Amino acid sequence: MSRWSRPAAYVPRRRPTREVAIGDVLVGGSQPIRLQSMTTTNTLDTAATVDQARRMVEAGCEIVRITAPSLREAQNLGPIHAALRAAGIRAPLVADIHYTPNAAMIAAEHVEKIRVNPGNYADKKRFEVREYSDAQWREEVERVGERFRPLVRRCRELGRAMRIGTNHGSLADRILNRYGDTPLGMVESALEFLDVCEDEGYRDIVFSMKSSNSQVAIQAYRLLAERLEERAPGEDSYPFHLGVTEAGDGEDGRVKSAIGIGALLEDGIGDTIRVSLTEDPVREIPVAREIALLAHERWATREDLPPEPGAPYVDDRHAHRRRTTRSIARGAMAIGGANPVRVELDLGTVPVAAAESARALADALAAVPALACEGVLVDAFDPGAVDQVAGYRRALDDAGVAAPLAVRGECGFVEGCADSVSRLVVPAGSLVDPIALKGTVAGAAQKGVPIEWDLRVRVREIGAVVGLALEACAEGGLEEILFSVDATLPVHAVRVLAAELAARNAGDVPIALRHRRDPGHDDERARVRAAVALGAPLCDGLGDSVAIAGFANDPGRALDLAYRVLQGARLRTSWTEFISCPSCGRTLFDLEETTARIKARTGHLKGVKIAIMGCIVNGPGEMADADFGYVGSGVGQVNLYVGQECVERKVPAGVADERLVALIREHGAWADPD
Ligand code: SF4
Q1: pTM of this structure
Q2: Residues 6+ away with beta carbon under 8 Å from 412
Q3: N or C: which end of the chain has fewer CB within 10 A?
Q4: How many angstroms separate the CA atoms of 306 and 11, rounded?
Q5: Which residue has the higher pLDDT, 513 or 304?
Q6: Which of 170, 245, 581 has most ligand 1 atoms within 8 Å of its beta carbon, as the pocket-test mutant?
C-alpha cells in the first residue's frame, strides 16, 4: 500500500491527483468530483444530440460524452459543439472512440477530450486464443503504440485531454491471453497506452477501469492507483473517472453504481464519475450527485488516523475473498461461517402494541414473499421495554413470523429477556465499564445466548474497546460473539474493526453490518447511503449479516434494499441479474423499453445473468460474464448469445424475446414464475 492508500483505508483521505483541464472544467486535485454522462442520440442527428446535451447540462452534468463510431459522426461533433456554444452551453464534450483511430483524429479537432479504449483502439476483438512469445508481444505493443501515437501528438498540440478507459469486457485478445480477464489485465492494458503518452510528454490524462461487476471494478481501480504511484512515487497522480458499466436500470442500476463508485470514493479514489443507467441520461445525474455528495462529506470529516492495527483488514485488497468466520447459532439463527450473509430487520424500540405490530410485520413480509426476513432486532433500553420483549416474541409466533428475535439494550438490562431472544446486542462506547462488560458476559454465558458488541466509538477508539470486550468474553468463557459498529464513518470503522479483531487472534469473529437511514433523507439519498455503507465492506469481503434501520413503517422496503445491496455486491442473488448498456448513438433499438420487456418476462430467474446490449460493436465484449445475451445486430435484428457464443444471428426483433426465452429453457435455466 502507498503513502496515500494506507491511511485512506482507515480514515477518509482523497488520493492526491494532478488537475487536468477539460475545456473550462478542471478534473482532479482539489476540484469537486465532476459529474458526467453520455448522450444516447444518434450523433448524426445534431438537433437531438444538442437538445439532449442541453437537458443533461441543465440537470447538473458537467462533462458530456458523445459517441463517434465512424468518421461521419466524428465530423458532426463540430456542428454539435458549435450549436452548444451558440446556445451558451460551455460544458466540455468528449468523443467516445472504439476501433476507429481515424475518427479519433477528426474528433480531436472538435471536442475537448477524447476517450479511447486500449482494448480496441487498434485491435479487433476476435476471441482468439493465441500464445505470444516475448518478441511477438513486444512487436504487438509497438504496433499498437504507433497506431496510438498520432492521436497523442494531436491532443498535445490542440490542448485536448484524454481518457484512457479500459473496460473489463473489452480487453484485447493479447492481454486476455497473458493476464486473463482480470483487473491486472485491465491495468496492464492501460499502462501500455500511458507509456506512449509519457513518451510524448503528454500528461492530460484521466483513467477509468470499468466493469459491470462492482468487485472487479474496485479491484482494478485500486491496483491502477497503486501501480501509478509506484511509477512516480510522491508525485500527484492522474485523476480517475469512475463508473460501473452496464449497471442496468431502476433500483438495481442505482444500487450497483453506488456500491462500485461509492466504495472507491470511500478509498479516496475518484475525480469524476458517471452513473450508467439504461434510462434517460438526465436521470443519471441525481444519483451521481448523491454519490459525490457523500464522498465530499467523508473527505471533509477530520478523524485522526487510528493506531496502525497489528494486522491488515483483509488478506488481499485486490481480490474478493469473504472473511472466514465462525458460525454463531442459537435456535434457528446462524450467522457467519458458511452461512450466506444474513438479512435482518432493525425495527427500533420494541412495540408496546405487540400483537398489532407483529401482525403488521407479518403482512409486510407477506407482500415480499421472495425476500426472507432472517432476523428481527428490537431495542429495549429501559426496564419497561425489556419486560415487553418476551410478549413481542409470543406475538411474532402468533402472527406466524418465525424469524429469530434479537434485542439491543444496555449492559445488564438485557439479561431480563435473554430466554426469548437469539442474541443480545450490547452497545459499547468509549466509556464502557469493564465490570459491567464482565457482568453482561457472565449473564449471557449462563443463559447460553450470544452477544453482539455494538461499538459506538470513534474510529481510533475501536481497538481499545474491542480489546476490553474480547478480554471480558475470554474471562467469562463466551465464544458466541459478534461485533458491529455504529459510526459516522461506517466503511472505515468496519475495516478497523476487522483489522483489530485479526490482530487479537479473533479474526474469525463475525461482523454484523448495520446502517441507519436518516429520516431527513429522501429515497435517492437513503438508497445511495445504504448501498455504500453496506456494499463497500461487502465488496471487501467483510460482513456476515446486514440490517438497515429507519424503515420501521416499511420493513418490506428495508428488506428489498438490503437484498439488492447483496446482489449488487455479488454476495447473494435474489433476482435475475440484468446487465444492460446505457445505450448511445450506436444503439439499434429502444433499450429502455426492450430492457423493461425482457425484465417482465425473465425477472424471476434467480441467479441467471442476462445481458441486453445495444450494438454488436461493443455489446458482446462488454457483457462480460452474462449467461445469455440479447444484442442489437442491425435495424430490427438481434443476435442471441449463450455466454460469449453467438448462437442465433439476425433474429427479427419481433420474435427475439421468444427465442431468448426458448434458449434459456434449452439450457435448463428457465423456471416458471410463481
Ligand atoms: S454496447 Fe450499448 S452503450 Fe456500448 S457502444 Fe453499443 S450501444 Fe453504445
Answers
A1: 0.93
A2: 436, 439, 440, 443
A3: C
A4: 8
A5: 513
A6: 581
